[in-house]
Amino acid sequence: ALNRPRAKIAHVYRGTFMHSTQDTTLEIIEDALLGVDTVGKVSHLLHSPKKKKKKNVNDFHALLRCSEFFMPGMVDTHIHAPQYSYTGTAMDLPLLQWLNTYTFPVESRFKDLKFAHRVYTEVVKRTLKNGTTTACYFATIHTDASLLLGKIANDFGQRAFVGKVCMDRNKSDYKETTQECQKETCRFIAELLNKKYPLVKPVVTPRFAPSCTGDLLGQLGAIARKNNLHIQSHISENVDEVKLVKELFPESKSYTDVYHKYNLLTDKTVMAHGCHLTDEELTLFSETGASLSHCPNSNISLCSGLLNVRNVLKHKVKLGLGTDVAGGYSASMLDAVRRTLDTSKVLTIQNPKHQALTFDEVFRLATLGGSQALFLDDQTGNFEVGKDFDALRVNVAPPGGPIDLILCDKPKVGSGALYKGDDRNIVEVFVAGRKVVPFMEPAAE
Ligand code: GUN
Ligand code: FE
């Protein structure tokens, strides 16, 4: 319906394409032709003209032909960029002690822009190489370092949401005053928008209710509403945290109600975890259009809880997957896919009536589900004509790679690759039509 002039076709890719659509969890289009136009959008996706079937097909060539496929880039709906610096080294405390002992001291160091530059470059490269074409980042309370994260994502060509973290309540001095949070959030938004990075957007980011006063939450809700911005935070991750929120906000009916009261639940909100939400709270998510980021590695690593994704989906709440580095010890969305399946199966072990998620469903959550959760599904998430070409070219069996042998059973090729593969299998990554892996090192200043 848009009256946009048609851009010229710049590239055509031929191969097997796998993606999720509005109506299917996993659609596999074999031997297709996908066109990308000069502005990086999918211009067409067609079955290639049928060739005459050759007799005596050599098995080796059949194997080679099915050893590659394209899939949509994965969407990490929740990751803390500064925490990448200590991933895997702080796995022995529950959430609230973990924050005080490890997280806040490390995040304090991001006042140092040189240190921030080093860590942020590594996290952007690592996640891109592992197939994260869109990342929704928490930075730290430091505005300039948060702006630097936006620049680095832009330089490497990653689609990113970046949040300057707000907290005006903390035992340590890793915090700002309410007024500083408000002023610096406005400066962060204005300066990031002013850079006009095409793929990077600011997110209003109250860390979570326990580290924010009601005043601050209200001000951030107003800023988000006025500028029609995304919002991210944490919710109901751990039982001690839920108890603390009850004590700090006695007037609210529930944890969800705290955010709702301050206008922080919108269709552009993504809340991490939600392990302990009640059905009533999930209904409030569904009514407001707010979404959840499921972070299974973190939920297990910090002994926080097991989110019942099946129940979330039954409540028609949008849900994507997140790595939650460094609560989660892996920055790879491949890991998030596996942990999501594991967690769901644990719930089935505990209760045989629980209907475990299928691989196809989880593939959808890692791609289209994440796009929906970030209010991006008109732009990314699958290979629908008109969307940006955010894609991975996966080679199931590259020389020297982690997969030695795979049966050439097309419907299962994706499952085999995502369960057993790693970044060596992700041979090319595209964001908005541009090849971003292998890296093009950003131009010198
Ligand atoms: N809740 C508030 N801050 C954090 C954080 O940095 N990580 C996790 N996992 N939960 C949080
Ligand atoms: Fe988190």
UniProtKB/TrEMBL annotation:
Domain Amidohydrolase-related, chain residue ranges per copy: 70-436
Involved pathway(s): Purine metabolism; guanine degradation; xanthine from guanine: step 1/1
Cofactor note: Binds 1 zinc ion per subunit.
InterPro entries according to UniProt: Amidohydro-rel, Guanine_deaminase, Metal-dep_hydrolase_composite, Metal_Hydrolase, Metallo-dep_hydrolases
Keyword Cell membrane: no
GO biological process terms on file: guanine catabolic process
Reaction catalyzed: guanine + H2O + H(+) = xanthine + NH4(+)
EC numbers: 3.5.4.3
Keyword flag Zinc: yes
Cofactor(s) it depends on: Zn(2+)
Similarity remark: Belongs to the metallo-dependent hydrolases superfamily. ATZ/TRZ family.
Record function comment: Catalyzes the hydrolytic deamination of guanine, producing xanthine and ammonia.
Protein's name in the database: Guanine deaminase
Source organism (scientific name): Mastacembelus armatus
